[in-house]
Amino acid sequence: QVQLVESGGGLVQPGGSLKLSCVVPEFILDYYAIGWFRQAPGKGREGLSIISTSDGSTYYADSVKGRFTISREKNTVYLQMHNLNLEDTAVYYCAAGPVTLRPREYDHWGQGTQVTVSP
């Protein structure tokens, strides 16, 4: 069982920032890209950003481009989020899989961390 562990969620006001962390088993980094996803209440899971562990390339969904930044340090992958708005409220997940923003392509998921944006 592959375990990814997210942390860093919380309550933040509109316009605020949060930095999420995802600790990844080291052996996973040899085979998979790491992606960040989110799922808002009543909605499907949405791909946000990916980092390729082979060459460090990064990819972003249009909904977060310019506000979110994905990065990696050793076996931790981060998602720095700025200028958060109410629509960013969701459970955020990291996952290991291919270089795609399609959640269905991913087999290994963390447990999720809640991000709530509220005045």
What attributes characterize this protein structure?
119 residues, mainly beta, seven-stranded mixed sheet
Q: Provide mean pLDDT, rounded.
A: 95
Q: Helix amount, in percent?
A: under 10%
Shape by Cα distribution: globular
- Give the N-terminus to C-terminus distance in angstroms: 39 Å
String of helices and strands: EEEEEEEEEEE
Largest sheet: 7 strands, mixed
DSSP, total strands: 11
Radius of gyration, CA atoms, in whole angstroms:
13 Å
Determine the structural class based on helices, strands and strand pairing: mainly beta
Count of helix runs: 0
Question: What proportion strand?
Answer: over 45%
- Ranges where pLDDT stays below 50 over 5 or more residues in a row are none
Architecture overview:
Helix content is 0%, strand content 47%. The chain has no helices and 11 strands. Strands 2, 4, 5, 6, 9, 10 and 11 form a 7-stranded mixed sheet that branches. The termini are far apart. The mean pLDDT is 95.
Topology:
Elements: E1 5-7, E2 10-12, E3 18-23, E4 33-39, E5 45-51, E6 58-60, E7 68-73, E8 76-81, E9 90-97, E10 108-109, E11 113-117
Describe what is shown at a glance.
With 119 residues, the protein is mostly beta strands. It has no helices and eleven strands.
